[in-house]
């Protein structure tokens, strides 16, 4: 079978990693990259460096990864859809839901694959968490909690913490819970002197009754990437920075200390940390994109799912502005 001719648009802090993975993905042939700023990280090697998406299209690419700033996603995506090029757009899909809907409509009309780069869905800890939940390990799931905290990243210039970071948690929490958001209430703050928010707390509920909480900021002097699913049999805790998954089981023996038993409602049981095969999430994402192009069963995140995530982040910002919960 002839390899799929792939181009990468935007070879900056994120795009350079897409270049490496496009090279290493079986079934892909990296034929060109494009960035008006040139190849500042020196990743192009023997591949032609172009200046625009139009030049990539003219080079005869069949698939493209878009890793330019969010505000430029729509222009590039619409050109790629019109040219019949299968496209993976880095998250978020677009700067707002109106723009995102135009992209979704264009790709559905063109009949080509449109995917969004929610790489956390390819994290080994979250993949295993979701599998175990589906197998019934937690029984009924009560709540999904995410924490995404770190120092401010110099690469961010055009969006705040909600659209850059919280969009990951919005997508993965809904995916883990197996249901869309029904209600969200959020608060944000601006502490670093930028126009965009740098801290967010949010809580809500999915349509299946599972509660959700998000804690996201750029103001923590250490990196914290955690997802917790709490259910009737215990809790699964994923450290997505390390790709680790731990199960905290509800104890089988009654607590003898009445005050503690009444407070906790459950007893502490066995703690198990699972040994997982840890493949780079971005490599999994590229393989999913390839399989979607080939018409195989694939876990690629669709553009319509990406649009849903944008609508939730917009709900978060509306809630923060109004001080009221937003029904989605």
UniProtKB/TrEMBL annotation:
Coiled-coil positions: none
Domain Gfo/Idh/MocA-like oxidoreductase N-terminal: 4-118
Entry-linked Pfam families: GFO_IDH_MocA (PF01408), GFO_IDH_MocA_C3 (PF22725)
GO molecular-function term, one example from the UniProt record: nucleotide binding
InterPro entries associated with the record: Gfo/Idh/MocA-like_OxRdtase_N, Gfo/Idh/MocA_Oxidoreductases, GFO_IDH_MocA-like_dom, NAD(P)-bd_dom_sf
Ranges where the GFO/IDH/MocA-like oxidoreductase domain occurs: 127-236
Protein known as: Gfo/Idh/MocA family oxidoreductase
Organism per entry: Scrofimicrobium canadense
């Amino acid at each position: 079978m002839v390899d799929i001719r792939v181009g990468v648009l935007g070879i900056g802090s994120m795009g350079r990693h897409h270049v490496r993975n496009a090279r290493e993905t079986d079934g892909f042939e990296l034929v060109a990259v494009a960035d008006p700023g040139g190849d500042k990280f020196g990743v192009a090697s023997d591949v032609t460096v172009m200046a625009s998406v139009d030049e990539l299209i003219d080079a005869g690419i069949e698939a493209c990864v878009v890793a330019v700033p969010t505000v430029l996603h729509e222009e590039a995506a619409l050109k790629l859809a019109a040219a019949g090029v299968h496209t993976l757009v880095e998250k978020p899909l677009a700067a707002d839901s109106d723009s995102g809907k135009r992209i979704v409509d264009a790709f559905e009309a063109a009949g080509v694959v449109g995917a969004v780069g929610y790489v956390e869905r390819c994290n080994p800890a979250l993949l295993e968490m979701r599998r175990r939940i589906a197998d019934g390990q937690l029984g009924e799931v009560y709540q999904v909690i995410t924490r995404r905290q770190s120092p401010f990243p110099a690469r961010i210039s055009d969006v705040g913490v909600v659209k850059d970071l919280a969009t990951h948690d919005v997508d993965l929490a809904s995916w883990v819970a197996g249901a869309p958001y029904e209600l969200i209430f959020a608060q944000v703050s601006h502490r670093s002197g930028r126009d965009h928010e740098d801290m967010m707390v949010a809580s809500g509920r999915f349509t299946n009754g599972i509660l959700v909480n998000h804690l996201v900021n750029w103001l923590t002097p250490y990196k914290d990437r955690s997802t917790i699913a709490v259910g009737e049999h215990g809790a699964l805790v994923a450290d997505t920075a390390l790709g680790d998954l731990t199960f905290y089981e509800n104890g089988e023996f009654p607590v003898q200390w009445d005050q503690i038993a009444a407070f906790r409602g459950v007893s502490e049981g066995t703690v198990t940390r699972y040994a997982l095969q840890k493949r780079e999430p971005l490599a999994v994402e590229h393989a999913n994109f390839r399989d979607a192009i080939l018409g195989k069963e694939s876990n690629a995140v669709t553009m319509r799912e990406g649009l849903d995530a944008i609508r939730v982040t917009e709900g978060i910002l509306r809630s923060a502005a109004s001080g009221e919960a937003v029904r989605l």
